Structure formats: structure tokens, C-alpha cells
Amino acid sequence: MSAVPDRRAAVIAGLGCHLPPDVVTNDDLTRRLDTSDEWIRTRTGIATRHVVAPGVATSDLAVEAGRRALDSAGGGADAVVLATTTPDRPCPATAPDVAARLGLGQVAAFDVSAVCSGFLYGLATAAGLIASGTAGRVLLIAADAFTTIVDPADRGTAVIFADGAGAVVLRAGDPAEPGAVGRVVLGSDGALSGLIEVPAGGSRQRSSRTAAAPGEEFFRMAGREVYRQAVGHMVASSRLAAEAAGWNGPGDADRFAAHQANARILGTAAGELGIPPERRLSNIEHVGNTGAASLPVLLAQAAAEGTLAAGHLLLLTAFGGGLSWGATALVWPDVKPC
Fold it and tell me: Is the pLDDT score of 338 beyond 60?
């Protein structure tokens, strides 16, 4: 009887992020929107956000974050997974271009689309590539130039969304070592896809042979219902992830990293999970909601600041369009972001 191969886990070995240098403050937004700094802060928790300059695309952000993650890991990768809602073009995928620009050669490279849950969907995908033996090292990048699909005149979304990229390098390793990715809890509900959408630009609108209605090229979100769905699904998936990791519950987490959607959502979800404020990682005040990039940017910044350290029990969760959501729990490794 042939021997059963040892199980291979995907282990976090490198970390990096990149935010575009241009910063938009709340005061900047008040010059063109019927809003105020106080209104934005109290409803979103955001004071500033980074935005791409004209001509800067998602791939530009992804390349910089990917390069930093590769430097952090001290090596290359034989596959690239890019989680994004804002690809450079509808076709082809953006990941092959990113891989080429990073000098990785003709490696496997493809995009994953799960909106703000993209990093966790990408993490599960990258872990699967490693577990199956398809790849030994995977560069997972989450990048969004989200402001390119937001209506600048929409107070409900223009104050929230921003641009950025974060990346991790995953290598084959042992399931018991720090940084090993275990079960990633994932879910979706397409029956509610209209709560978060860009109505125009896809095959449904194009096949109608009619021009899109004004504003349908922009991102739309039903804020109140999204809030309810986000809290419910992030809490439920976090509990499942903690159980899968063998914890007593989410309260075992030393650090809680949730997609930086909105300060109110984060506070409510963490409260329902029994995670006290001092264990919650957050950068939303100065970064805003960067879509799929939110979680890896948060991890890179927290690791650089020392608020996330080796040995911490880390609980990750996200919610996004689709509807889609996910969570996972792991022991944070000794990795230094670049």
C-alpha cells in the first residue's frame, strides 16, 4: 500500500503593504459634499483616506505591495493570486501582468473576485494550491483602486472608500507551526447581491444593447441592510473559525482583525464576540475602507507597529459584496513586514 503523503499547510512567510501617497481628509470632502468632519467621523470612524492619482491602476498598487511581501519573505513565488474588485481591464486578469512586472516569469497567476472578502477567499485558494502540491510558494495580493468605481458625489460611499494594497507570501510548511493557515470559513448569499453592486459594465447590461443609465457605472450599497448582514455573518463565521481552530471561542483571540468597513460595524461585531477594545486591531481612522486590501494592510501595519506580535492568537473576518463573507483563526508567526 502506498504511503499517504504528509499534509502540507500554507504558512505565512512574508508581509507587505502599499498605500498611494495622496491623502484626502474629511475637510477636503466637505468642499464638494453636503457633509462635515463630525458627521463622517461619528458614522464611519474615518478621518483620512489614501487615493490613487490620475493614471494609477490597481496593478501599480499590487506590484508595490507584492514586492514588499517578497522582500519580507526573502524569496520568490511560483504562483500569484490577486484579490480585487477593480482589475485594470475586464480582460485579461490583472495578476499575470503583476507577476511579470515582479520578475516572477511564467508562473501561474489569476484574479479572485469576492469584493471586500477577497483576501480571505484568496487565502483559501492559495492554501489549496499549496496543499495540493500545485505550488510551493504563493504570493497573495489584495489590491483595490476602489475610488475609481465610487461616485464622487455620493455621500454614502465617497466618504468611506479608499485605495491600497496588501500582500502575503505563503510557503509550504507544517500545520502545527505558527502562521499555518487552517480552515477558512467561507460563505455567500447571491439572493442579496443587489445590496452591494456596480449595476453597469457587465454582460447583462452590455447584452441589452442599451447604454447604462446615469450613475449605474458606480458602486452602490444599501447601507442599513449591509450593516445588519455584515455584523451577523462576521460574527457567525468568526465563531465557526474559532471552533475549527480548537479554541474555546472567539474570546480566546489575542487580536481581532476585521475588514475595516465601518467603525460601527467593527465595534458591534467585536462586542457580540466578546472581544474587548484592547484586542481589536484597527486602522480605519487613517486608511478608510480599502476593499479587498483592508485585511492585509491592517496586518502589515499592526505587525510593523508591534500591536500584532509573534504568538498572538489571531482571528480574521471579512464581509463584502456577493454577498460574501469569511473568517479564519491562526497563530501569528514571527514575520517582519517590508
Answer: yes
